[in-house]
Amino acid sequence: MAYRVLAVGDTVGSPGLEYIQRRLGAIRRELNADFICVNGENANVVGVTPRQADAILKAGADCVTLGNHTWTRWEIQPYLDEEPRVLRPANYAPQCPGRGLAVFDTPAGEVAVINLIGRFTLDPNTDSPFLTVDALLEDVQAKMILVDFHAEATSEKIAMGYYLDGRVSAVWGTHTHVQTSDARILPKGTGCITDLGMTGPAESVIGIKPEQSIGKFLGDVPRRYECAPGPAKLEGALFTLDEKSGKCLEVRAVRYK
């Protein structure tokens, strides 16, 4: 039987969080999604609080993944040890709070989710995401395995897709907040998209007020990011998996306004 996974792009600020709270349930029903994974690391614009992560879970997400802003809010650290459904990148140092792998029991069997962060121009002090995922997969028995690769370079994200092709069900990229047009099934059966996009203000520069982003490129004095106002959008991808083999049968990008 087919198992449908909805991966939702980075939630940005209160517009993104409010959109998740208001619309995720209806979108789940419309897409007939069995499992939802939401990247939540920008729910506080930069970082996420425990309350915001809880709100995403309450709205219908089965799992929340994070990224390079994981440690921006100090209060998230004990929370990550307490809430197994919220993951931080697995290739952070082992003494860091939380976990980067979770296995969920579902009516269709186990679903494993792995969260990784890239090193190229993003966080070179982390362990290799390629070697980290190798080690994690040695102990994963689930047929359906999902990977959120939070990385800057499209080349690194595409490379991860091919590296894991045939070993996991789906690999999607997060972090750049711009949905790519390359949703596809790789030669050995892994569904892949370079970046899901974002869930946040539709009229913005990756979620931030356009004038602030323009000012940054013009050399203005740095200041705290301000989330753009106005209507929000949700972007992501829907992966249809074979429950028995774990292979991807279909993948398509989704976008809602």
Q: Can you tell me about this structure?
A:
The structure is a single chain. By secondary structure, the protein is an alpha/beta fold. Strands 1, 2, 3, 4, 5, 12, 13 and 14 form an eight-stranded mixed sheet that branches. A six-stranded mixed sheet has the order 6-7-8-9-11-10, covered by helices on one side. A hairpin with a 2-residue loop joins strand 6 and strand 7 (about 110-115). The longest helix has 19 residues, at about 15-30. The protein is about 25% helix and about 30% strand.
Notable traits:
Purple Acid Phosphatase, chain A, domain 2; globular; six-stranded mixed beta sheet; 14 strands; 257 residues; eight-stranded mixed beta sheet; alpha/beta; single chain
CATH fourth-tier homologous superfamily: Metallo-dependent phosphatases
Helix amount, in percent? 10-25%
Distance between the termini: 30 Å
What is the 3D form?
globular
How many domain units?
1
Given as residue ranges, the uncertain stretches (5+ residues, pLDDT < 50) are none
Name of the CATH architecture: 4-Layer Sandwich
Largest β-sheet summary = 8 strands, mixed
What fraction of residues sit in β-strands? Answer: 25-35%
